[in-house]
Design goal:
Elements (H helix, E strand, L loop, with lengths): L4 H4 L3 H4 L1 H22 L15 H20 L3 H27 L5 H20 L8
């Protein structure tokens, strides 16, 4: 008889529905951004100053979204929390890239979008995502 995380702890969807739906929204957002950036279906002209090509960023966002979707399906709180932290770093990187593009004369709209998304993901990580540590 095998024991899975579903048998050990209650579903995140039942325990913290707001966290579950926000995590699912970030997962779907990352999948859609990854697909759009990889296939270059983007709404504004992106000129990243970094060394990472846009297609590779598309794969990173796509893989991150799929991994978060899988962690929610498997009810793995620790992986979901870790993926939120990874998402914060990804969105902060794009925030700084948008900031550099804004300074060089491009539109500030992407800066506002990435600022908002980064702050929301930080709030979800810090305040909403339960920790999976052992009770003492």
């Amino acid at each position: 008889m095998s024991t899975t995380t579903v048998d050990i702890r209650p579903s995140l969807r039942l325990l913290a529905p707001q966290t579950y739906w926000m995590s699912l929204a970030f997962s779907l957002f990352n999948i859609s951004v990854g697909y759009a950036v990889f296939n270059q279906f983007i709404l504004y002209k992106v000129q990243l100053l970094g060394a990472v090509p846009l297609r590779f960023w598309g794969l990173i966002f796509l893989a991150h979204g799929l991994c978060m979707f899988a962690s929610l399906a498997l009810n793995n709180w620790k992986v979901t929390r870790t993926l939120h932290l990874v998402g914060i770093f990804m969105k902060a990187t794009w925030l700084f890239e948008s900031m550099a593009a804004t300074i060089s004369g491009q539109s500030a709209f992407p800066l506002f979008v990435w600022s908002f998304l980064t702050i929301i993901q930080i709030v979800v990580y810090v305040y909403f995502t339960p920790r999976s540590g052992r009770a003492e």
